[in-house]
Design goal:
The chain is of the alpha+beta class and about 270 residues long. The protein has 2 domains: about 140 residues, Alpha-Beta Barrel (N-terminal domain of MutM-like DNA repair proteins), CATH 3.20.190; about 120 residues, Orthogonal Bundle (Helicase, Ruva Protein, domain 3). About 25% of the residues lie in helices and about 20% in strands. It has a 5-stranded antiparallel beta sheet with strand order 1-7-8-5-6. Strands 2-3-4-9 form a 4-stranded antiparallel beta sheet, with helices on one face. Helix 3 crosses helix 6 and helix 5 packs across helix 6. It is elongated and about 60 Å long. The two termini are about 30 Å apart.
Length: about 270
């Protein structure tokens, strides 16, 4: 599913292409994706307005608008943002499914904005698990995983006794880390995913923070979390990209987890 790097790519599309265009029409008729708003509610709130800034914290993104209400867009498990220029050229960001998607293939559009200049913006989501709503409660999210400081990171991870992977996945403690990114960070820092957070030393926490920043920046630069080295090794025949040991699989924090038993001993 989209994690912070994929959501950042979608936010960048919004920022580069969709700001300061006047909204002529809104298709908010998908009552599941646009819940709890009734059809026409988002349209009434945004028609004639423009998007003024594209923001993100963790996996959540939103746009401020000239009309006042904030437009929240969540990609769910398979969503992407598609901007269509007036000449039909398309630019997308978000999940990496169907790379090379044919231009004009909008079968899974769940929400759209049409601008007065003939351009448009779509939320394309095959699984229909994305979400569009006005004034989303982003204040409940923890610090963003891309910009969290070392001190904030230590404070977020050091409290309690849960497994470190569970804490990394807790969006109220640290916003933006999903299952694949968590496995990469723990592997890169040589920390076992089941290790209780109260057993982590200061050097452990500092290594985890550095690994997080490096993994996030690498994934953003390379096109998504699927490009990270440990992701290819998360399979039955997978071996550690660092030492060649067979990877081990278990369930941690309710999620399928892979780690190297040699580099990440329990």
């Amino acid at each position: 599913m989209p994690e912070l790097p994929e959501v950042e790519s979608a936010r960048a599309v919004l920022e580069r292409y969709a700001l300061d265009r006047v909204i002529a029409d809104v298709d908010d008729t998908d009552t599941y994706v646009c819940r709890p708003h009734a059809p026409g509610s988002i349209r009434a709130a945004l028609s004639g307005a423009s998007l003024t800034a594209a923001l993100r914290r963790g996996k959540s993104m939103w746009c401020t608008t000239s009309a006042g209400p904030v437009l929240g867009i969540h990609l769910g498990m398979s969503g992407k943002i598609v901007f269509i220029a007036s000449d039909g050229d398309e630019t997308d960001g978000g999940d990496y499914w169907q790379r090379g998607r044919a231009r004009g293939d909008h079968r899974f559009t769940r929400f759209s904005l049409t601008f007065t200049d003939g351009t448009s913006l779509l939320l394309v989501d095959p699984r229909r698990l994305g979400r569009v709503r006005l004034d989303p409660p982003v204040e409940r999210l923890g610090p963003d995983a891309r910009t969290i400081t070392p001190a904030q990171f230590r404070a977020a991870l050091a409290r309690g006794t849960v497994a470190v992977k569970a804490r990394l996945l807790d969006q109220e403690a640290l916003a933006g880390v999903g299952n694949l990114l968590a496995d990469q960070v723990l592997w890169q820092a040589k920390v076992n995913p089941s290790r209780p957070v109260d057993e982590l030393s200061r050097p452990d926490l500092d290594r985890l923070h550095r690994a997080l920043r490096q993994a996030v920046e690498s994934a953003i630069a390379e096109g998504g979390v699927h490009t990270l080295p440990v992701v290819e090794a998360r399979r039955e025949s997978g071996t550690c990209p660092r030492c060649g040991t067979a990877m081990r699989r278990a369930t941690v924090a309710g999620r399928t987890t892979w780690w190297c038993p040699r580099d990440q001993p329990s």
